[in-house]
Amino acid sequence: MKSAISSSLFNSKYLLNPNPLSPFTSLKSIFLPKLSLRSITLKHSPSSSTSARRSISSMASSYKPEQARVPSALPLPSPPLTKFNIGLCQLSVTGDKKRNISHAKNAIEEAASKGAKLVLLPEIWNSPYSNDSFPVYAEDIDAGGDASPSTAMLSEVSKRLKITIIGGSIPERVGDRLYNTCCVFGPDGELKAKHRKIHLFDIDIPGKITFMESKTLTAGESPTIVDTEVGRIGIGICYDIRFQELAMIYAARGAHLLCYPGAFNTTTGPLHWELLQRARATDNQLYVATCSPARDSGAGYTAWGHSTLVGPFGEVLATTEHEEAIIIAEIDYSVLEQRRTSLPLNKQRRGDLYQLVDIQRLNSK
Q1: Residues known to be catalytic
Q2: Region (Disordered) spans which residues (predicted)?
């Protein structure tokens, strides 16, 4: 296992702790914030701070920032806890479904044993990523039990370990339709939310990669935000991360954290994977967590890997390369208000010039 990679705006240090008894490599992050480029000295006085607040307030009255979100943005709610550890389980996936389920279960248990209160799994972790495989490995999630062994495992483990699980995604069968679906389970083992991938992965890069999810999958029809024991979380799956409007809607609904299980490929991954995560986090001033399958160069679809946690300033807090790994990293929600106070974007939006309309919230009023 190579050492962790970071392109953080801050200096970060990572400790790699191989466990010879585990099939996974444990990766734990230690975040040491420092100014990275040069020391900056600012003269501060109460009068200058007061003047700045008055200037922002003046802009707010003339620019109508509250009208930039329709309906108006919700305030950031107080989370049930301020600090906790997240576990990102970057898993190898094979054609053996029973093995994949057992392997994911072992990874979740290891992450929880290392202190994770929230565990995130990869996109399509119970099946090879292919249009031929989706119908074969699909499960009836609503029926549960033997009809959905993958979610039955997630329910059992979340309840036994008393943790929240963002269950990556699996192919879901509903009648004659197939979806790419993420299930969220709470510490009581109950299904708290279900997100069906909204934006299907249909791309054609000549000489590189062509994939059309729409050949077998149906697009979801609703954004998904869920209140959990570890905060308010917005859910997207892989290609969903490319659409900033979805992340903006989640931020306007008061999300603390966005979770994107995803399987970017080796063509777009090096160019866009980290870039998009940092952009979503920076633009919306919240945390972004992603989890990819580990890379299998012999598979029909080759995942990029590099599961990552990004902070609200766009800083990479923890990441890995393409092999199997379990990343344990700390999330501190108190940082959200600090960043939003320093860069008060919500008070500086130009509601007199543009608006983002949340159709779902608007129609529910």
Answers
A1: 123, 197, 238
A2: 43-70
pLDDT digits (tens, 9 = 90+) for 106-164: 999 999 999 999 999 999 999 999 999 999 999 999 999 999 999 999 999 999 999 99
Return the percent helix, strand and coil in the chain, to nearest 5. 30, 25, 40
Q: Which CATH number fits domain 83-363: 2.60.40.420, 3.60.110.10, 3.30.450.20, 3.40.50.970?
A: 3.60.110.10
Which pairing describes strands 12-18 and 177-185: parallel, antiparallel, or unpaired?
unpaired
Q: What single string gives the DSSP state of each residue in 321-364?
A: -SS-EEEEEEEETHHHHHHHHHS-GGGT--TTT--EE-HHHHHH
Which token pair is 71? Answer: 């309906």
pTM for the whole thing? 0.85
83-90 vs 116-120, strand pairing mode: parallel
pLDDT of residue 2: 38
Q: Parallel, antiparallel, or unpaired: how do β-strands 69-70 and 356-357 relate?
A: parallel
Residue 230 to residue 139: CA distance in whole angstroms = 28
Cα separation, 139 vs 159, whole angstroms: 21
The Cα 281–Cα 314 span in angstroms is 6
Please state the φ and ψ torsions of residue 12, each to the nearest 5 degrees: -125, 150
- For the record, the structure tokens of 13 come out as 């240090």
Query: Cβ contacts of residue 92 below 8 Å, gap of 6+?
Result: 103, 293, 294, 296, 324
Identify the bridge partners of residue 119 per DSSP, sorted by sequence position: 87, 165
User: Residues in the chain with pLDDT < 50?
Assistant: 1-21, 26-43
- For residue 67, what are the β-bridge partners? none
Q: What angle do CA 37, 38, 39 make, to 5 degrees?
A: 140
Alpha helices in the chain (DSSP H): 46-63, 97-113, 133-137, 149-161, 244-252, 274-284, 334-342, 359-364
Rounded to whole angstroms, the Cα distance separating 114 from 67 reads 44
Predicted confidence at residue 145, as pLDDT, reads 96
Q: How far is CA 196 from the centre of its chain?
A: 14
